[in-house]
Amino acid sequence: MAISLLADHVYPTVSDIDPKQLAASGIRLLLADLDNTLVPYGVLEPAQCVKDWRRDLTAAGITLFLLSNSRKPGRPEAFAQKLDIPWIGHAGKPKAGGFYRAMERMGCTPEETAIVGDQIFTDILGGNNAGVTTLLVEPIRLAGNPGRYVRYAVEWPFRALAKQRSKK
């Protein structure tokens, strides 16, 4: 199997992803990363725009499902409960196992599933490994961890290629 680091589509934020378009393309399950995708690192409450987006996803027939690598005890569960969505923590992305567990739990196939995340080497690579549609968003905030700057610098060429490909 070829390794793919390119996202299928690129958006500035999750709120820019149109639930109706996702539904029209056959997506029924949207897996979402937590930190720097839905909220900045350490933020415990979903912003109103995320709550509104989740409501719009539900109205379009799409289940939002939190798929997080967070190892902070209780963080993914507590956040998911505030949005009333299913979740898996310690997902092990980019390995495909967490993706498959989520799809099995929700009764969806890879063709009916997408992942949205801010990281190429976990969210996008994992989604491509699992055969789902991959949606890349810009990280909400880089501040606070110098390692994030390095990681995003390494990811930059893949982000640029994915953006170019997404516009076609």
TrEMBL record:
GO MF entries: phosphatidylglycerophosphatase activity
Superkingdom, taxonomy of origin: Bacteria
SUPFAM superfamilies given in the database record: HAD-like
GO CC aspect terms: cytoplasm
Protein name: YqeG family HAD IIIA-type phosphatase
Organism: Candidatus Flavonifractor merdipullorum
